[in-house]
Amino acid sequence: MTIVEVLKLSADYLQKHGSDSSRLDAELLLACTLGLRRLDLYLKFDRALSAGELDQYRALVARRAKGEPVAYLTGHKEFMGLDFEVTPAVLVPNPDTEVLVQRAVAIARESQDPVRVADVGTGSGCIAVAIAHYAPNAEVWASDISPEALEVATRNVSRHGLSDRVHLTPGDLMQPLAGEFDVVCANLPYLPMGSSLPAEVAAQPAHALYADQGGASLVSRLLEEAPSRLKPGGRVLAELDPGIFAVASESAARHFAGHRVHRDAGGHQRVLEAWS
Ligand SMILES: C[S@@+](CC[C@H](N)C(=O)[O-])C[C@H]1O[C@@H](n2cnc3c(N)ncnc32)[C@H](O)[C@@H]1O
Q1: How far apart are CA 204 and CA 24, in angstroms?
Q2: Which single residue of 80, 84, 170, 220 could bond 130 by disulfide (Cβ 3.0 to 4.6 Å)?
Q3: Which helix (H) or strand (E) holds 258?
Q4: 237 - beta bridge partners?
Q5: pLDDT of residue 112
Q6: Residues 115 and 236 grouped into a single domain
Q7: Does residue 44 lie in a domain region?
Q8: Which residue of 77, 84, 91 sits with most ligand 1 atoms within 8 Å of its CB, as the best mutation to test the pocket?
Q9: Quick check: is 154 in a domain?
Q10: Range(s) of the domain holding residue 21
Q11: CA 192 to ligand 1 centroid distance, Å
Q12: Mean pLDDT by 10 residues, the chain (276 residues)
């Protein structure tokens, strides 16, 4: 079978098994199997697959059909135009989080001075790395409670050549991060325990997904901690599920002078920005 034939069959199969990005999934998995870039598949449409390649590809497609995220199968995910290593120890970087990064980069670029940024719950390190990459005046201190996640983040920081400006520390929220910050970013777990989730979300680590108090506990705790850790004029940017926005807004109103919301590409309330 040729690339074009295999893609058609596997995309149909994945669609029947519930993938809403079946063609893209099929292409990413085939490119990974063949060691090609995804766009190269289009230049080699008539290339025949060997029996070994077909077996390897079938195994990946079968795992994807059972709900494993494509990024765990390929070991990579693009975020903010940058490539990140991803393992089952970390949340798969999500395009919704780009809203937060773009706002943090805009704040950093408004300043002529060095900008101190915190990234709380860094996971793969995607937020910390993207901010440091796009805002050369930013230095980022990032925390996570998961040592396994920090191992992945360390490799991502190093492969993007940012070890001098992104510092990773294990621990709870801002506790391991010394000093005061111009921007505190956080994409902490915010889903209620026991949420019913699509298989590819449920396959991600529980410590990256769920929080007590209907999903609001960690964000609420951060909003309490952060004001004493902000420089004058500093800001908190916290990614949220729209379902906890009301609770988070109340908390922001108690602890900050002002706050506003940024919506994601789907129009959902996604990032709370708060200032003292
Ligand atoms: C939703 S994931 C986000 C990961 C990454 N920032 C991203 O946007 O892809 C949340 C991360 O917060 C970490 N985390 C959970 N509770 C934490 C806590 N109390 N303190 C620090 N990090 C925590 C998890 O281990 C996980 O890596």
Answers
A1: 20
A2: 80
A3: strand 258-263
A4: 185, 273
A5: 94
A6: yes
A7: yes
A8: 91
A9: yes
A10: 3-66
A11: 15
A12: 96 94 97 95 94 97 96 97 98 97 98 97 98 98 98 98 98 98 98 91 95 96 97 97 95 97 94 96
Domain count of the fold of the chain: 2
Alpha carbon dihedral 45, 81, 264, 262, in 10-degree steps, equals -170
In a domain? residue 111: yes
Q: How far apart are CA 177 and CA 43, in angstroms?
A: 48
Q: Which of the listed residues 87, 195, 207 should we mutate to test ligand 1's pocket, taking the one with most ligand atoms within 8 A of CB?
A: 207
Which of 128, 116, 186 has the alpha carbon at shortest distance from 154? Answer: 128
β-bridge partners, 85: 76
Give the CATH number for residue 21: 1.10.8
- Residue 53 belongs to some domain of the structure: yes
- Claim to verify: residue 58 and residue 139 sit in the same structural domain: no
Q: Which of 145, 191, 195, 209 to mutate to test the pocket of ligand 1 (most atoms within 8 A of CB)?
A: 145
What span, in angstroms and rounded, lies between the C-alpha atoms of 6 and 3? 5
Q: Are residues 91 and 33 both part of a single domain?
A: no
Q: Judge if 52 and 92 occupy the same domain.
A: no
Query: Who lines ligand 1 at CB under 6 A?
Result: 90-91, 93, 97, 120-124, 126-127, 143-146, 149, 172-173, 187-189, 207-208, 218
* 3-class SS of residue 193: coil
Q: Any residues with CB less than 8 A from the CB of 41 and at least 6 apart, and which?
A: 3, 7, 27, 30, 31, 34
Res 125: pLDDT: 98
Q: What is the CATH number of the domain that holds 271?
A: 3.40.50.150
175, amino acid identity: Q
